[in-house]
C-alpha cells in the first residue's frame, strides 16, 4: 500500500485535518489524536515503538496552526506552541477513522473471523514436526486454531516433554497450580476429577481463575483400548443457538455471577475462589468466553434465593444443547496426537474407561494464554506473508 495525498486542509476551526487521497477517498483526523501521536523523537521512542509524550502535556482542545502537504507522501503540521509534527501517508491511511478502515484494522490485528461447527466438524490436522520447524505450517496451525477453535497435531513422540517444545514454538506456556504441564491419568486420591477413569462432562478448564487459560494442549502418550473417547463442542455456536431459542436463558447465563472454587495441593498448595458468568459477552452481547465447569462450581451461590431456580433452568437448557448429537463431535486420540483448542470457546469432555491396576491412559496437558499465541501468530503472519 503506497497511498498518495492529493490535498490536505484544516476543518472545524482547526480541530480536524482533512486528507484527500489520490484515489478520490478522504479521511478526517481529530487534531487532539494527531498531536497525541506525533512521531518526532521528542514525543515517540522509536526503538520501543512507545509514546514519550506524557498525557499531562496534551491539550485536549488543541487546534492546528498550519498544515501543509510536504510531498504527496507526507503532511506536516505546526502547532500553536510551534512544535512541528510530520505524518507519513501510509501511516495515516492505515489509521483512518472510517468504519471500513477500522474494520480492516481489526481484521488485521485480531483475526476475528470464526467458523462455527457441530457434529459435522472436519477436525483440522497438521503434522507436529512441520508445525515445529516450518513457519508456514505453524502459521496455518495458529490461524486455524483462531478461526475454528481446534486443531489436531499428529506424529509427536509418545513421551512427556513434547508440549514444552510446542510451548517454546509459541513463546512460553502458562504456569498454573497444577504445574507447567500436568499428567492426566488415573490417580489414587485424585485432586482433580480428570485424574480418574470416570466420564468428564463438557467443561472449560479453570474458570476458577480470574483470567482462565486461553488455549489448552493435550498430548496423548498412552491410550486405553476400551473407552476414553474425547468429545468437543463449539460453545460459541451453542451460545448463538441458545440466544435465538431462549433469549431470557441467554440473558441469565450472561449476567449471573457463578461461584467457582478449587482447593488442594499440587505444584503448590492452593485455595482459589472466583466468580464468572457462564457466558461472557462483549458490548454487542456476543459471546467471547465460556466459563463452565460443573466439577468446580461451588456450593456457595451468591444470588437471591428466588433467582436460583431460573438460573438452573437456563443452565440445564444450555447443557442440553451442548450434549445434543447435533452439536458434539467425538474422536479418539492416539499416542503421539496433540489436540490444541480454544479453552474460551471449545468445551471438552471424555467418556469413561475401565480402571485397572496399571495406568492404561495417559495424557500430558498444558496451557498457553491467547496473548502469547496471538503474538506468535502476528509475527508468523508478517514473516510468511512478507508484511511490514
UniProtKB/TrEMBL annotation:
Gene3D superfamilies per the UniProt record, alphabetical: 3.30.2020.30, Clavaminate synthase-like
Enzyme class: oxidoreductase
GO CC, one annotated term: mitochondrion
Residue ranges constituting the TauD/TfdA-like domain according to the UniProt record: 118-367
One annotated GO molecular function: gamma-butyrobetaine dioxygenase activity
Cofactors, names only: Fe(2+); L-ascorbate
Catalytic activity, as annotated: 4-(trimethylamino)butanoate + 2-oxoglutarate + O2 = carnitine + succinate + CO2
Pathway: Amine and polyamine biosynthesis; carnitine biosynthesis
InterPro entries linked: AlphaKG_dependent_hydroxylases, GBBH-like, GBBH-like_N, GBBH-like_N_sf, TauD-like_sf, TauD/TfdA-like
UniProt key word Iron: yes
A GO biological process held by the record: carnitine biosynthetic process
SUPFAM superfamilies noted in UniProt: Clavaminate synthase-like
EC code(s) of this entry: 1.14.11.1
Transmembrane helix as UniProt keyword: no
Swiss-Prot/TrEMBL keywords: Carnitine biosynthesis, Dioxygenase, Iron, Metal-binding, Oxidoreductase
Similarity comment: Belongs to the gamma-BBH/TMLD family.
Function recorded in the entry: Catalyzes the formation of L-carnitine from gamma-butyrobetaine.
Protein name listed in UniProt: gamma-butyrobetaine dioxygenase
